[in-house]
Amino acid sequence: MHFLLPGQWAKPLLAAASLLLLTEFTVAVGASFSSLEARASNTSSQQFYWIDVEPTENLVWHPCYQPLRRECARLLVPLDHLDQSNSSSKTAAIALIRVPSPYTNSSFNSTNGTDPRYRGPILFNPGGPGGGGVDFINEAGDFFATIIGPEFDIVGFDPRGVQRSTPKIQFWDAPGHGEREVWNSDSSLGFIRGGPGDSFRNSTGETGNSLEWTWAYARTSNLQAKARGGDWLGYMTTEQTSYDMLSIVNAYGQEKLMYWGISYGTVLGATFASLFPDKFERIILDGVVDSDNYYSTLWNNSVIDTPKTMDIFFESCHAAGESACPFWAPSPSLIKANLTRIYQELIDNPIPYSNGTSYGFVDYPRVRGQVFLSLYSPYTSWFSLAQALRDLGSPQRDPTRMWEIMATPIFHCSCSGSTCDDKETREQDLEAPNMEARTGISCSDGVDIPDDVASARIYYEDFSSQSEWANGWAQLHIACAGWPKVKKGFQGPVGANTSSPMLFIGNTADPATSIVSARMMVARFPGSRLLTLDTPGHSSFGVISNCTHTHVREYFVSGNLPAEGTVCNSDIAPFPGLLGSNSTASSVDPPTGGAGVLRRVDGEEEDEARRVRDAGYALGKVWEGYSTSLLRRRR
């Protein structure tokens, strides 16, 4: 078992003896999950086709993604679960994947295990909205099984409208055919220039798109949604997905849901618990979104703690020392000043780049976007970010490392002429991520917003006065300007007296979901508990913490919650040579060769603890690639 440096990530293989074996981390993080998706399609084209799987009202599992131990299914559900008259025969098909428990029935067409140790399925949603659970669990499922235990099936699903689940939210030709790539060719990653919180608002160079351009882009995209969206458009809501999850549980032969939701997945989980307070056994909400803010289409309190996360980057880099943090300077404030200098130089003088296989330019919006992306997974990404910033800030202004971690694959048409209708292309079209799914779900969920540019300007000015990161986040609200009038589903109130307690997990320096939101949301569900991670990063997925994993496993297995006020820390530090905050050790070990540094407290760790810790590190690498891919297609 081995791990290489950050900036690369793992393709996991599970041996028959359930030993965790990892191949080399071979793909740069900036393109990692896109490569994952391509690899999944390549694997399916050789051995398994989703388009060959007939949707059924019962779960019929098929072996898939060999040689990984995976099973896939497509579950037929009503398009409108709320149609009590059953007057509509329209349906949706939900794509699922599972890493089956070794204790489940070995028959592909059986859903119930016969071994008394089998506990049933745990469903996962990795966020978005618009994120696909099939790809994520295909890549991370073995690591979850190691962390949680063998008693459970690890189940991922593409929410309705997303990737393999049909009807698919899609207003352009399928990815790879050219239409959406031309429309989405802007390289600013959605950054808006100007506003009270923009430190470079008076710069004359390129710092992002104008507010007016952002609004016009959204309005035009939503005209496209109106023109090409089907009559299913009003049913792509979190409420309907909650009913889908209940349908999955029932098709499994179970009565109650077990679930782990991250980021937007916490909105989905909180909505499910509000609608069905007696229909779940375990729910973990991790990286908690303020559901009221989400359903109000505001998106303006997510980045409250982003400056805190940035400060930890500066502080931990300085504390690690010059030999451990490549971007080191004599004080945290000087590290911050050096980053600001790099930003200003890029505004004044972007760097063209080509390495023969990919090309483009390194500018302020791209680099600031990559810095923000790294805040999601500090323990697996900050070292490589520091290397890239060191090179970029040198007298030579070398952009090579930065390009490697931020570049996306060069677009090539996936087909031409008659090949656009062959089986391989149709399979790729079904599996491809659809960037419009986020807008399609969030704008259908939330209250309608004004569609005029003046209202967008007022919103942005107010948000920017509150946060310096508004210029990278406000487009999530503006994207709903002019969204087609559709049937609205559940919009609250979120909260309930539930038959089982929920476990909330919140990081004290989460760049995308504030700990304040976690504290507010846990109060909505009496008897539930908040587990605090005193760490940077978005959700527990980016943190290597045996303390956290122990509480997660205990909750899923026995239902026991952590004691009130429990705080966990990370077992590694973002940079080599820096001990974790609770360490009493005088020596450290890396995670089986990784760049982070593990605390040693009482001699050698037990094999199980080391195995879980290594699974946590590998999960962090998958999470880094997944979150990067999802954020890069936010529009």
UniProtKB/TrEMBL annotation:
MF annotations from Gene Ontology: hydrolase activity
SUPFAM superfamilies: alpha/beta-Hydrolases
Keyword annotations from UniProtKB, A to Z: Hydrolase, Signal
Gene3D superfamilies attached to this UniProt entry: alpha/beta hydrolase (3.40.50.1820)
Signal peptide segment: 1-28
InterPro entries for the chain: AB_hydrolase_fold, Pept_S33_TAP-like_C, Serine_prot/Carboxylest_S33
Organism: Leucocoprinus birnbaumii
Keyword Signal: yes
Pfam families: Abhydrolase_4
Protein name per its UniProtKB record: Peptidase S33 tripeptidyl aminopeptidase-like C-terminal domain-containing protein
